Amino acid sequence: MAKVLVIDDEKSIRNTLKDVLEYEKNNVDLADNGIDALKKVSENSYDLIFSDIKMPEMDGIEVLQKIKEINDEVPVVMISGHGNIETAVECIKKGAFDFIEKPIDLNRLLVTMRNALDKTNLMTETKVLKKKVDKKYEMIGESEALQKVKDIIDKVATTDARILITGPNGTGKEVVARQIYSMSNRAGKPFVEVNCAAIPSELIESELFGHEKGAFTSAIKSRSGKFEQANGGTIFLDEIGDMSLSAQAKVLRCLQENVISPVGSDKDIKIDVRVIAATNKNLKEEIEKGNFREDLYHRLSVILINVPALDERKEDIPLLIKHFAKQICDEYGSAVKTFDDKAIKKLQERAWTGNIRELRNVVERLIILGGQKITVENVESFVN
Q1: Interatomic CA distance for residues 151 and 130, integer angstroms
Q2: 274 and 233 in contact (C-beta within 8 Å)?
Q3: What is the pLDDT of residues 291-334, one digit of tens each?
Q4: Is the pTM of this model over 0.90?
Q5: CATH number (domain holding residue 100)
Q6: Domain total in the chain
Q7: How far apart are CA 58 and CA 287, in angstroms?
Q8: Which tens digits make up the pLDDT trace of 148-173?
Q9: Range of the structural domain that residue 83 is part of
Q10: Residue that is last in its domain, among 263, 278, 308
């Protein structure tokens, strides 16, 4: 049931709209002037607002502006018996969802209402989804080692500095990259992730920079690359230590000149992309072996973030277990299972070569195979 506010100084219009909207199973509040309406908007959360334009004390356009200051997301439909194109355009420019002329066509009113409520529902669903995504990439822990990483993120997130994230497999390098992106000025713009190790060396350049039709045998049409797709946003080059030297040369040019050249093209495309890279390799050793370009390393490593292994932050394991247990039980739609203190201590004592990824897998295994409360006996039985 949607909550709707109707603002109109004519009692007959207010009551007619109330009857129609309540017949459609909505909860309706009424206000006969802008001042009372703004008080109601401040005190309540509405899914939709209908407002007349010509009213005493405060006209509808002023009311619209003040509503948007209080709650920018609520759709406001303006109603007027003296409407014209200029008035309608002004209302839309100031944030109105739609404009309806008097006498009100009830079919038009109902269609507008449904469209506005659909928009409200979509925005709510998007917020819920974003919260789920944010939670998926939440950094869990209070250890000193993790706090150092969080402190660096706080300082660099709002800059456009290039960042190189290092650390063993499974430590959460992607989580760090996502956290930087979500706190940056580019949040809401594209975030494009590329796993350089998963793409064959002969295809990496096409994947990153795109290609023209006929550039190679299977290029049946032109295709934009990941850098172009990330334009205005952020590109995350995961496992960059596995990138071929020829692709490294093109990435270097991109970082130096902010241009890319698709495979098979002699044209340059200007781009604006923040680059975050990650690797589990020691790139200085790779440079000595001739596997990685030193000039690219220095371009990428303006900011260096080393993500600690789980064995370096074992005090975070109880919080991580609690977080993963809730996350996994929510995914399975079951009641949240708990771990007793001895089970947690036993898990803290073991070595975690697979880091956080391994811990999550172990927690999932124990939740599936253990009882409602995970015991030390469960850990000894199901964890090698």
Answers
A1: 24
A2: yes
A3: 999 999 999 999 999 999 999 999 999 999 999 999 999 999 99
A4: no
A5: 3.40.50.2300
A6: 3
A7: 70
A8: 999 999 999 999 999 999 999 999 99
A9: 3-133
A10: 308
